[in-house]
Write a structure and sequence with these properties.
By secondary structure, this protein is mainly α. The protein is built from 13 helices and two strands, in the order H-H-H-H-E-H-H-H-H-H-H-E-H-H-H. The longest helix has about 40 residues. It is globular and about 60 Å long.
Length: about 325
């Protein structure tokens, strides 16, 4: 990383643009990932990522693939901005002695970034998962061999009222992230939005610890000279490779987080009392392979998302915007 003074507003703009572009491109795959992770043995509605996407389009239309995208697009800007900017700031701090960054210091910077981002990530994921998984539960209702509508249960009364009641043929009732957030705050307080915080930390901190040092070292290999920047395509490829590697490595934590944050349960889908209970029940009833559910989808989501993020970040879109608009007054 550059030792120059960091322009925080520019980094925030870079992260925000990258997040919006990336999420728009890969959100359908993320929806498939969530639905595949929430499936239980003997109750599979979807056989694979492509099967999930095809069935989603058939039953919910093309816009069904973007269910929950609004909350993601709204919150991904601060989330991605905090993640990238925090890592940059920590790396800048650790390199102030002029000795450069060791791999350990790079991992510490990534750890700090991961811990900062969960402030936004946890409620964002909490709301997104409810919207994404609604279609899976509706599909189970339409499939008598998998689940009877009368047996559909929910751990949260409000969400059950919102989109799980009524004739199976009618499908889920529309519900917005705002409605869910309002009801969670009313019934459970702020902790309702932060359910699964521990699991989110378990996923995001190791992800950042793996991703940022791996990206920095891969990107370094593409530099023509030590003082020059790597080409944008190398930054993109480095972001893709580092992102997909970190995503698969922490996928077990992502499965646990998804299960804990899913408030609605189908027939025979039991609730979990924390991370340890969740891990124990998944291991006992579904086996170790269950922790790799959605790993391929997650790699396909994270790879382009972080590839795009790093291209925006290192090309300097934020700096360009600040230098050519009244917002330049915000730059130090």
């Amino acid at each position: 990383m550059s030792q120059q003074q960091i322009s925080l507003p520019a980094k925030l703009i870079n992260g925000g643009i990258a997040g919006i572009v990336g999420v728009t491109c890969v959100f359908p795959i993320d929806l498939a990932k969530t639905r595949l992770q929430n499936q239980r043995p003997g109750q599979q509605v979807y056989k694979s990522m492509m099967d999930c996407l095809v069935k989603t389009v058939k039953s919910e239309g093309c816009f069904g693939m973007y269910r929950g995208a609004a909350v993601n697009l709204t919150l991904v800007t601060p989330e991605k901005a905090i993640k990238l900017a925090a890592n940059d700031l920590f790396r800048h701090h650790f390199a102030r002695d002029g000795k450069g960054l060791t791999v350990f210091k790079e991992m510490l910077a990534g750890c700090g970034a991961g811990m900062c981002q969960v402030v936004i990530t946890t409620p964002m994921e909490m709301l997104k998962i409810q919207l994404q998984d609604a279609g899976r539960l509706a599909a189970q209702q339409r499939k008598p061999s998998v689940m009877s509508p009368s047996k559909l249960v929910a751990t949260n009364t409000m969400l059950s009222r919102s989109y799980n009641v009524g004739p199976a043929a009618a499908g889920p009732r529309p519900v917005s992230a705002t409605q869910i957030a309002r009801e969670l705050l009313h019934t459970q307080g702020i902790q309702g939005l932060y359910k699964g915080l521990g699991a989110t930390l378990m996923r995001d901190v190791p992800f950042s610890v793996i991703y940022f040092p791996l990206f920095a070292n891969l990107n370094r290999l593409g530099k023509p000279a030590p003082e020059e920047s790597a080409p944008f395509y190398w930054a993109f490829l480095s972001g893709c490779l580092a992102g997909s590697t970190a995503a698969v490595a922490v996928n077990p934590c992502d499965v646990v987080k998804t299960r804990l944050q899913s408030l609605n349960k189908g027939s025979n889908e039991e609730a979990y009392n924390g991370v340890v209970d969740c891990v124990s029940k998944i291991m006992r009833k579904e086996g170790p392979s269950a922790f790799l559910k959605g790993a391929g989808c997650r790699a396909l989501v994270i790879a382009p998302l972080f590839g795009i993020a790093q291209v925006m970040y290192f090309v300097g879109a934020g700096e360009y915007i600040l230098d050519n608009s009244p917002l330049r007054l915000l730059s130090p």
